[in-house]
Amino acid sequence: MTRRTDVHPVLDRPGVGAPFFSTWRVGTPERQRQVVEAVAETWLGRPWPAEGLLGYFLYAGEDGSTLLHYSQWADEQAYEAFVRTRRQERNDAIDTAVPDIERVRLGRYRHYRSLTGGDHDTRVPGCVVIVDIEFDGPDPDRQRAWVDAVEEALAAEPNQHPGGIAAHFHLGTDGTRVLNYAEWESARAHIDALAADGDGVGSPTEAWHRVQAWPGLKSSTVSRYEYALGLVPD
């Protein structure tokens, strides 16, 4: 069966071979709440759909309009089997409860690296910040090199922001994107970090300038979310 959980996912969990992120645009904060409850009701009323699905999590966008979906799959074959047999009837039930959901994009990723404070850091994230990086063409080596440069910039950061908990970097399987799932104590802590000197959460150092001016970097977007729903097999 399926059960609801308030526990945040472990982003570097062993066995997750295919982490997927997708976005739904629903329009208003009220519809955000309605869709979350429709997803919960739909999933809790049915058996867990696939052995290869390890967890499914929803986040409400600070913009009041979007929902972020994060699913942990053992591999892409498990997801494709779910699409063939179980996904449509679940989406139909959700759409019946809350019509006119716009399913914007599904991104397929592989977890690459997590930067954390270690096992002694037991803080619970009050805010999840998604940093979506897009390059001008597929290049897996460039994806990894950019993340490595971010790690170097963070290690050399002279003004570490205490509200940051962890950063979990994922590489898009199409070779063009990097997604950072960053955990913060609160939205306020992230806002305060952005308000400090520098472009983004980093200080105006040469290492951060190198990250921001990386050859082929096409776009960078930052969105804040609040944990709304966790579903796991019982």
UniProtKB/TrEMBL annotation:
Every ABM domain range: 49-86, 129-193
Annotated GO MF terms: monooxygenase activity
Keyword Transferase: no
Record InterPro entries: ABM_dom, Dimeric_a/b-barrel
SUPFAM superfamilies for this protein: Dimeric alpha+beta barrel (SSF54909)
The organism's place on the tree of life at top rank: Bacteria
Alphabetical keyword list: Monooxygenase, Oxidoreductase
Protein name per Swiss-Prot or TrEMBL: Antibiotic biosynthesis monooxygenase
Organism of derivation: Streptomyces ossamyceticus
